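Field: sequence (string)
Field: structure_tokens (string)

Example rows 1 and 2, in order.
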Amino acid sequence: MDFQNEVLKKSKKVPVVVDFWAPWCGPCQFLGPVIEELAREANGKWELIKVNTDENPSVSGEYSIRGIPAVKMFYDGKVVAEFTGALPRHQILRWLEENIPDDRKKELSEILKLYQTDTAKGLTKLKSFVDDNPDIQEARVGLARRLVFSEATEAALLIEDIKPGNRYYETAQHIHVLRELAQCDHNDNPTQAEKLVQAQKGLKENDLDKTLKALIEGVMIDKKFCDELPRKSTIAIFNLLGPDHELTKKYRRKFDMALY
């Protein structure tokens, strides 16, 4: 094969994923159809080249192929990412998403930085970016994280396609819990229901201090109320805020005491 033209030269225009394989390799037979299907689904976003290591020993040697299957991504004539072994489809998708060069991700990074210094302007730009680039999952998740405390239903819609195995799955589950909290109208326990209403009001007002206080009080009244929604919602907020956030630090111990 002409590796120079088929891979290195072509990678100046589009990312090229090279699958180093051999007919006798069992794991290669598992990986091959999966990565070929992903290449078809990519619609030209990246291209796949298969390199039989038995037929191309010099290329295999040049790129230090010690075990197969070995997959390397070339961009602008260089290896920019790689993995070895027969990964399942969802892991390959994650690898592709994380490593396919995309100038739009640079723009997204700048918008997220802007959000930290100018929330209103950053949120406006982030919404516009998601409207223009709905295929960038990182952007939709980023927007959902920033909307969930005041617009939980809208936030959940942004990430409803995220399935188990996706790197954002845990985050998506926390967002869905807060949507459930925002929509909950259980009244079988009046005292507990009152705490849920207070928590919902706090969410709507983007007042997480009020929300967490009401949720933890709800946990103290009945840990299992509404399928443990107060407990799950508190955990969701802690995870979305992060362990170093002032509210997480303020309420973490109170929550632990409420549980036990």
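Row 2 begins here:
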Amino acid sequence: MKIGIVGLPNVGKSTLFNALTNAGASAENYPFCTIDPNVGIVNVPDQRLETLNRMYRPEKKTPTTIEFVDIAGLVKGASRGEGLGNKFLSHIREVDAIAHVVRCFTDSNVTHVDGSIDPVRDIEIINMELMLADLATVEKRREKTRKAAKSGNREYLEELKILDIFAETLEKGDSLRKLEKDNKSLQLIKELSLLSVKPVIYIANVDETDIKTGSNELVEKVREYADNEGSEIVTISAKIEADIAGLDEVEAELFLEELGLEESGLDRVIKAGYRLLNLISFFTIGEDEVRAWTIRKGARAPEAAGKVHTDMQRGFIRAEVVSYDDLIKYGSIAEVREAGLLRLEGKDYIVNDGDICHFRFNV
């Protein structure tokens, strides 16, 4: 999973990225500090994997990962190339979801590109740039399809109808996220690499004094906007996340406890990303390795097997499946089998979150 971190300049994007990935991206107080996107690979925290690791004590423990891409600050006019906008927009096309960092803190020492703090205005500036970029893409394709449709070809006529709906939606100032989409629409969206359809997590960046409550007047405005759009919202303090990044695991837990927080901003962002993209985790276990894998909810057993190795998907025979909860309850695979809860599943089995799978295959 790849999540692009976007936002106006000086809202805390690079500070958050540094905290999440400990990658040391530049975080200076001026626009366009980040021009080429920084990329960081982050382990996905999962207590179930830690428990399995303690049970089996393998040679290796491998969590699943999430990729964060720090994309430089967009400005009004980006869709027309303002502020190196075309380059930045091309980076957004490559991500699965957008983490839109919004400034919900006041600090006279940190300048705002528009001179005042208004998170909803900031959100709408970037959303509008994404929609304008999409409209330009749709119009270009629509002109080409309109000419082809004059032949009466049913496929082109159907495509033109979909493109008309896309254009009408964007012209009204609505993102394509709000549209009902059939398979043909989804195929066209993917082909055109449209931006405003990508799922969004709004990350409300607050100062340290507001992180305990997780809210302030500015955050509530963002929350209302996100709720109306059907998007996720996570409240973080980039400064606190930066402090946590410099601590070891025990120190980080104590620090969070002192702040009255149950989990870090990283954990909340990842969970929101999983919900947005309908992702789940399954596990493989053995003496050599205990490992977590990420798949989309609804994936069948052969697809999950393919995550482990393409040969497993190609020569899939069956999956031996134990639920994580059953394993914890009974203490071992042997005891789960004795209880009659180890299942043999075929090609149509839909993998569940927390399944522990052993794939049988022949190539």
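free_text_note (row 2): Residues 229 and 274 are 18 Å apart (CA to CA).
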